[in-house]
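Handout, section 4.2: multi-component inputs.
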Amino acid sequence: MTDLTSMTAADIAGAVAAGDVSAREVAQAHLDRIAALDGSVHAFLHVDVDGALQAADAVDAKHASGAALSPLAGVPLAMKDVVVTEGLPTTAGSKILNGWVPPYDATISRRIKDAGVVMLGKTNMDEFAMGSSTENSAFGPTHNPWDLQRVPGGSSGGSAAAVAGYLAPLAIGTDTGGSIRQPAAVTGVVGHKPTYGAVSRYGLIAFSSSLDQAGPFGRTVLDTALLHEVIAGYDACDSTSIDAPVAPVVAAAREGARGDLSGVRVGVVRELGGEGYQPGVIAAFELAVNRMRELGAEVVEVSCPHFQYALAAYYLIAPSECSSNLARFDGVRYGLRVGDDGANELETVMSLTREAGFGAEVKRRIMLGTYALSSGYYEAYYGQAQKVRTLIQRDFATSFEHADVLVSPSTPFVAFGIGERMADPMAMYINDLCTLPASLAGTPAISVPCGLSEGLPVGLQVMAPALADDRCYRVAAAFEAATGPVLSPDRLAIAGGLR
Amino acid sequence: MLARLAVTSDELDLFAGQLDVILGAVARVGEVAAADIPPTSHAVAMTNVLRPDEERPCLPREAVLAGAPDVEDGKFRVPRILTEEA
Amino acid sequence: MSDFDDVVARYDPVIGLETHVELSTRSKMFCGCSTEFGAEPNTQTCPVCLGLPGALPVANEVAITSTVRIGLALNCSIASWCRFARKNYFYPDMPKNFQTSQYDEPLCVEGYLDVVFAGETFRVGIERVHLEEDTGKNTHVGTSGRIHGADYSLVDYNRAGIPLVEIVTKPVVGTGRFAPEVARAYVTELRGILRTLGVSDVRMEQGSLRCDVNTSLSPAGSAELGTRTETKNVNSLRSVERAVRSEMLRQAAVLDGGGRIVQETRHFNETTGDTRPGRSKEEATDYRYFPEPDLVPLAPDPEWVARLREELPELPAARRARMVTALGVSAEDMVQMSNAGVVDLVAATVEAGAAVAEARNWWLGYLAQEANAREIEPAELAIAAADVARLVELVEAGTLSVALARQVVDGVLESGADVDTVVTERGLKVVSDVGALEQAAADAIAADPEVAEKVRGGKVTAVGALVGAVMKATRGQADAAAVREILLTKLGAH
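Output:
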């Protein structure tokens, strides 16, 4: 472990801008740590050594020329492999895209490159972002740096593990039902799901279009906010992109870091807790609420009666949309083709390709979604799920009349063992219990570390109304400032490694 | 089948049981009386997001065909097609 | 013919038409790729219209406007709020394996279009006008060149994503024996409207206007609807008429034989003029429509719609009514001129001094043929209305015969020069030297004594062969009527 890999993104950017260190040295230090440790973590599917060093050199050249650098120039980043990167393999964790090299960049890939952020490589994930443990990757699971026998959460498990393992100070994840917040929580890092429409989806390989949202991971709230401001903002290539100024999340993080929450009304969601939650998680959460009260927050209890239907609605909407989104993987234009022996008809080749190219969870969801959308079932399933969505939005609206932010545990339990839940899809699905409501409502939510249970990290979720992402950051930063870091290199199973 | 998946019989046995359980769980959405509730298809309410009718550069054909499993004469080659177009 | 009369005596036909119109926007429906026809395969594609992972659609503003204008021209109500929907099915010409279309919320609904045939007006109800994206194009490679028996297929996605408007009629009843002609007249009138709106090239031969024709028969006088078939691949106006007629005859034969009509898709064969069943689907189609999450709803502002309505150009029916008076032609002539796209051309030719009847004859006759042969619109011919007026003048003066005038047209179209230049340069003038004609007539009679004898014997019509011979000998530069007179006089057949 070198000083460079333990620095925050903000500090690295400051050091590069001051000329204290070169972007190349920073990139090399992280590449070295990845080379030494990622064999045991498996956070990355593809490490782009040449690309990273080139990007770093470009930052150094720009600095040498005297030009001003953007706020995160020279800071390394790990990119979830669901985000399309021109010229760099992109698989979404699936065999069906093995070997595909996109001819274009996602909007956020472009923004990250333009900001001088140094992309180290592409991170492991549950196949097509379907899962909560990263065990559904076609390329093997990612291991939680806190305990290599445990999962890092999912689906953005590779990105979370990269940040938690000090392999990268920043990472991009995507969150459809909790895929940023849940892995952030169980790896002890910060992860934010922005307001739906705040970050462009152009170039995100779609899982569930009406829910997918990319967002930042960092080890601190401020780092996370800095990355948020790089990727957020209107994009004419995404029809659902919101044409409004980006919420001032960096300012909010700095404001929050002063540790004062007076005047802030914090709503504890009655329905997100209690039965089914690990006692250690509940205990950590209750301490967190007390801490916020100590910081001056006014704590109230709110009730969101329809949150109990979020899981059911989510597991209808997401599979339905995915059954349509994943239809394009058919072996005609790109990716895998199986069974083209000269005798098989196209229809057979498509079926064999999809059978061979998709993993079990993806198939389950495609089947579920195909069923839920079929005529005769649409109203009872998909149609009804969309009505539940409306009711959940109304629950939020009512609650935000009494509170500025809502809080809950980010997950019902800490990181579980690899393989423990794979046989039982429902046991896996309940990982997302706390994160699903904000996904369905399209509202922003952050997960910030709030303590340990059984020696493993617990996350606090802070939810805000649409477009008020800054509230999440402000409260999370205040909490972070008051509690100090949960994550530290010496707490990790992989703490050693490099000198 | 509609999903174009050639699922093996072993898989089918496994999935059938799992999907039953999942369907049982998701059917809970039906417990909510929502006759007068409008459905939400888009989380953020926006309308009329349109693009001016302007040409933009296309991809070079090499890039278009680079990832294709089979190519002939600048086109994507596919095995013979059984069904008529819809 | 008697077969058909018999069928319509015992059965009432019900027809319905689904017309697909490719809009002539500069860029595609959901991306900026060019829509130019005839480019090299797969050169007008991008991540969006190739359905590459991660790509997202953004709707083309002009396509929306054009669709609303079409709806207004067809007397439709415009939705105040509607969404795109995904139509899910697998087919290799569809890059995403779903088509972005509209389902239960079309942009325009409940309109009508009046079409006139044989002096009768038929009101065709319009059920809906909606907007979707076109598919790519498959080429089937193998001995047959068709999907049946092909060894493999090749896919070109240049067409994928071009905006496509679908116009669906309600079932049209009460057309009786005119069903085939009404179907054709509807498509013709619709094409005229689309051309006037300037929203599409409406080239059936290039596929920018495509028709599916639904046909069913019910027993005469009965209210019950028969089972309908949908005939695809109907690629010309003439085929629309033939497809309906052929399907009526086929269905009647099946019903007469005690059989049942199967609800199916059939394909029209341009060569044989009949329909054949499509290969049946391996699975019942369930398109699993759901609202397109990647596109936000459309909510046309009523004021904007009202403005579009006010700004609609004069539509063909109104224009015909006005021009009937202005030009003093019959309503039927006007329908014909309108369908051929020559109303303005005739008017301009009359303006330039020609008589209406002559102007009409040229534009509907030889010039229409020439345009057709070149696969362009008459208006696109390289000849001006003034040229046509000058031709008419020269023919009236006897300087040119009709045959010569046609040669002048050919010259104008080839060279781009004006009529008088072509006449001078090519020496195209009627031979009025009576001596030369007399000699040619004598030669013709001598060369074909048999025909000459027939004419002498009173069979005056046989003289045509001799006229032809004289015209040939004078390279067409003689006045055929004068030649005829000379021949008849010589043969004493007067």
